Amino acid sequence: MKNTLLLRPILLISILYCLFLVSCQNQSKSETETTVGDFKTPETIPLTFTEQEPFEWETITSDTLKTPVTYSLNVDALPSKPFALNDFKPLKSPMKEFDMDWENYPTEQLKFDSVPFTVTTAPIKKPTITKMKPPGIMEGTNANLLQLSTNEGLTSNLIKTIIENKDGTTWIGTSQSLILYDGENSFSYDYTNINDMVFDDQGRLWLATFRNGLYVLDFKKNVQYTINVFGDQLSLVDILYDQSGVIYLSSYRDGIYSIDTKFENLKELVTKGTKLPLTLFEDHNENIWLSFEGGIGCIGKERHVLKFLPENLKLNFALDIKEDASGTIWICSPEKNEVLNLSLQQKKARTLTKENGYDIEGTRLQEDENGRMWIAANEKVFILSENRNSFKSIFTNSKIRLNGRGSILKRKDGSIWIGTLDKGIIMTNQFTLKTEYFDTSRGLINDQVWEIEEDSRGELWLGTNNGINIIDIKNNSIKAISTEQLNSRPNNTINFIKEISKDIYFLNTRPGFSILDRQKNTITHYDTSLDLFGAGISAINEHTFAIYTNQGLFVYDIKDNTLKKVVSKNDPDILKAGSGSVMVYDEEALWIPTTDGLAKVNLKTNSIYYLREEQGLIDNDTNAVLFSEEGELWVATLNGMAVLNLKENTLTNLKQENGLIPAELFDVVEKGKFMYAASLDGLIPIEKATFKTTNKGFYTFNGGLGFKSNDYLQGSPRFLKNGQFWSGAANPSSVFKLLVLDAAPQPDSLESSVFITNLFVMDENPGFNEKTGIDSLNNKVSSYAIKNNITWNSIKHPYSLAEGLVLPFDQNSLSFSYASGDLFNKDQLTYRFILDGEDEDWTYAAATTKTKNYYNLKPGNYTFKVAARGFTNTWSVPDELSFTINPPWWQTWWAYLLFGLLFVGAVWSFVSYRSRWLKKENRILEESVAHRTSQLKNKIDELKATQSQLIQSEKMASLGELTAGIAHEIQNPLNFVNNFSEVNKELLEELEEEIEKGNYDEVKALAKDVSANEDKIIFHGKRADGIVKGMLQHSRSSTGQKEMTDINTLSDEYLRLAYHGLRAKDKSFNATLNTDFDNSIDKINIVPQDMGRVILNLITNAFYVVKKKKEQNPKGYEPTVSVSTKKQGNMALIKVSDNGNGVPKQVLDKIFQPFFTTKPSGEGTGLGLSLSYDIVKVHGGELTVDTKQGEGTTFTISLPMN
Q: What DSSP line would sit under 390-402, residue for residue?
């Protein structure tokens, strides 16, 4: 057998090494496990109010009130002006339709001639990196549009082409440079006059320039290829990468070219008389459509034939060709103000012209994600509906065509980007077609709209800062009622309009208010001393109104022209904390938001209750209240939203830490399953079903989505019956607008995107290039990475990050930069990141933090992950960068193996030496152990004998305690035997005399007495015999044989024996004996002599301690020993109690230990309780003690009855 001893240390070292390596890598939480960065779940607490405050009504005297004055006002006779929302409107007439005889259209055979060309190479020009501002709001339009221009960091506002890469980055060709835009930064490359560009399958970017040649940028190899026709400069205007992998180029002065991606052949398309090509497009059937200055052509899939459209479909100078989702080809020409669409499947052609309402010179086409066709032109975009029978136009305030044709792009996020010639890029979003704005330039009497009321006729009443507008949406008209017609002050804000019954309106017209009766064509003005500016007004019924101002709460009854005010004897300032509030009445109470909390005014009981910060309200400065359809009361405050559930008496607060951003709220409205909070900076939908349990936060629709005015005017937000949202709003510059949304804004499910954009090692840019240190142009590369032996497998673009990165141990401090590709609501962006292998959990970072540093990382494998959360409040899929830090050579596996082998060799040498020495020592030790073992065995035998003697001594000691008692017990039956023997002797003598006398009757009587006395003699003799036998049983060793025993009798017998024994020793001793035996206890199966010893030992100890206490002569002390039995469940309890001094606490846990005694030396062996404890345990029972110092002790024997 081989000796495997030496293999074990190696195996052990290997296991320990593996465990060490594993332990060095922290186990990190995944993005689905972590809650870092999530908002706090809203807290719901019990709803409580302050104690009620009674109030009284004070009637304002008639001297203060003026008599209402009625004036004539015929609203229907007021002059009107046109007013129309920019909705989709039907085409003025259907598009003209033509049949297509596609197979018979004129054709010509294609001919490609080879063209000499040159290819030169150079490194790609290094970009200039600029931190970009978020897209700005596009001014000068009435739609939600964003703008990316020089104001935000672009190098030029003249945009010629835009494309989107697979990774979500956007490439922009301007008049001055090529720009990579990732949402955070622009990377500006010095390539000018780019008219169009495209990516091929290898990820190379092809740039078609005007008179600067054709560039191909290979970022992976850091190579720029420049292709030029020999002896000429191409004027490239369009480029196409077809599905077969061939590049097609249109050169405005030269023709159509094709080139393969290997740069082997450049060919020119030779056609008959067709010149000045412009546009190239490939449809899903792989047909290539071309526009020339003079016609439209189509090259078939086989690339053999060029087909031309006939004269009736001929368009000159077509600038764009696109295909929609149905396969229809759209061709746009600004020369004829016409758009042509061709369906090869249906063989139909249709034209969109001025006759249909098409009123622009369109240059670019793009179908959006909803199937609508966008046609861009100077100053305007024409949008054709998905069913192609209606349209709407958007004014863009920008130029698209001047000396170019502009550009248009549909991004993956659904937005449309339009490149302009003077305003940079215009960005649309989901609200562009849903939103518009109105001011005095579009018919309003004033820009500030503070109230919107939809009446029973379907008309909208707008209360402004200078009168009222009445909008008839059905008839597209608008009327105005001036402050003069209202008999109100100039520039007076009308902030409350309510139709209290059919055609009767309550108007807040300062000073006082007015009732407008549209049927009687009158307006009645009620002039009061109240300043109703910013007042909260609520209709209690058709003729009674509650009016809340900073002067207090009033109730005006227009029927009898009475005004009452709430007053209080205890509080002269009751309800004077006005807030310009929106209050509600719920048939019993007014709910009034104030600057001192929410007031509940019960009009039936004349009492007020407050909900303030002390009761859990989020903020005392409240602005508006509204009951939801579910009956919950929503309270808008300057620090969030409070929701009162009056049925369940709960209060839920929503604040900034719950994701309600911003928390300054001025109003709240309801639509469907959402409540909409009108805030200082946007509209926030809150889902009623989930807001109490969500930790994901809430959306905010604001300027980041192009909303021009986001500070909503209190009291104006309103959802109309048709689902539209109307509200007055202002921007930070106090420019006021009327905002109209055609539907309630809904949260979007689009996730954010995020990119790792840069990596620094030891605060140095590593300069990742080819891993060999030589670039593709055979130029030597001297970068920080190469110098410091940093290796990698490949480069990840566009940020030139290394994949398969491996760093030496001394290059272990890294810095990561990251950014989000989100373009909308960038101010709501936040991030979280983690370094797997270092961090245990993610770290939350605000939008301003874009860099994370790690220093002195240990050797191991790491992955840096970063996720972004934007407008949708959903964390993105993390971007990742993995790398490895190698250990120094002395921490590598082979070094540990070498160290292990050296250690094993040293151990082997040491073990060999020690083995020889130990063998010698072992022999000596064995001899010594054998000798000591023999001695130890003798000692053990002696101890066992001594132990037996001690145990027997203990038994005999207990027997000695019994001797006097046994003698006393035997003496009694012996006295009976002696007495009855003497009596029988006398009776026998008397019997003989009677026999002699022949008195046989007397003889018989005497014989019976003798016989009875003999029975008594026998009884007491047996009694003495039993006592003797019991003594013998107690004195000899137990047989261990269990018997059914009456524990009551056993306990009583040993109590008496112990007592008489002690009395025999000390005649002066007396004690009270108490017994309480439970007769319901059946006989139990025990070893009677063993259990008797236990009981005797406990009783003897009890007599001992009471005797000792008696000797101390305590006043009034009477020694008492009690023995009782009790049935408790399936257990029989035997308790022995005394009223001695008790057991000291310091020795209580030792009393059952062998040889431990509290008696003076010579009075005890210390084995009594120990043996008793062991006997009870053998019987399956338990012996416990309960003692109180100075009061006594109780020992309890618990024995199973089964």
A: EEEEEE-SS---S
Which phi and psi angles does 123 have, rounded to 5°?
-65, 150
How far is residue 22's CA from residue 568's CA, in Å, rounded to a whole number? 75
CA 1103 to mean position of chain CA atoms: 73
In the chain, CATH 2.130.10.10 sits at 55-62+528-651, 96-436
Cβ partners under 8 Å of residue 691, min gap 6: 42, 643, 652, 654, 698
Cα-Cα-Cα-Cα dihedral of 781, 785, 789, 794, to 10°?
A: -80
* Distance between CA atoms of residues 292 and 1001, nearest Å: 168
Cα separation values, 48 from 609, 615, 616, 855, Å: 10, 6, 8, 53
How many other CB atoms are found less than 10 A from the CB of residue 682? Answer: 24
**How far is it, in rounded angstroms, from Cα 274 to Cα 1093?**
131
Whole-number Å distance between alpha carbons of 529 and 177: 68
Note the pLDDT tens digit of each residue in 324-348. Answer: 999 999 999 887 789 999 999 999 9
Domain covering 55-62+528-651 assigned CATH 2.130.10.10 in the classification: yes
Residue 414, both tokens: 């659904």
| Collapsed DSSP state (helix, strand, coil) of residue 1083 | coil
Q: What token pair was written down for 612?
A: 């303030």
| Nearest C-alpha neighbor of 624 from the set 573, 669, 685, 687 | 669
CA distances from 1113 to 226, 696, 1119, 1159 (A): 124, 82, 11, 19
Question: Could you tell me where the DSSP H helices lie in 998-1046?
Answer: 1000-1035
Query: What residues pair up with 452 in beta bridges, in sequence order?
Result: 462
Nearest to 363 by CA among 331, 398, 326, 395: 331
What pLDDT, on a 0 to 100 scale, did the predictor assign at position 23? 47
**CATH for the 754-891 domain, from 2.60.40.10, 2.60.130.10, 3.40.50.2300, 3.30.420.40:** 2.60.40.10
pTM for this entry: 0.71
Q: Which residue has the tokens 């005392």?
A: 620
CATH 2.60.40.10 in the chain is located at: 754-891
Q: Which helix (H) or strand (E) holds 426?
A: strand 425-427
**Position 170 pLDDT exceeds 90:** yes
How many whole angstroms separate alpha carbon 224 and alpha carbon 204? Answer: 10
Residue ranges of the chain assigned to CATH 3.30.565.10: 1042-1202
Q: Residues 1011-1032: what's their mean pLDDT?
A: 71
* CB 350 within 8 Å of CB 98: yes
The highest-level CATH class for domain 96-436 is mainly beta
Q: Are 866 and 831 in contact (CB under 8 A)?
A: yes
Looking at the domain 1042-1202, which fold is it?
Answer: Heat Shock Protein 90 (3.30.565)
**Sequential DSSP letters for 347-415:** TEEEEE-GGGT--S---EEEE-TTSPEEEEETTEEEEE-TTSSEEEEEE-SS---SSS--EEEE-TTS-
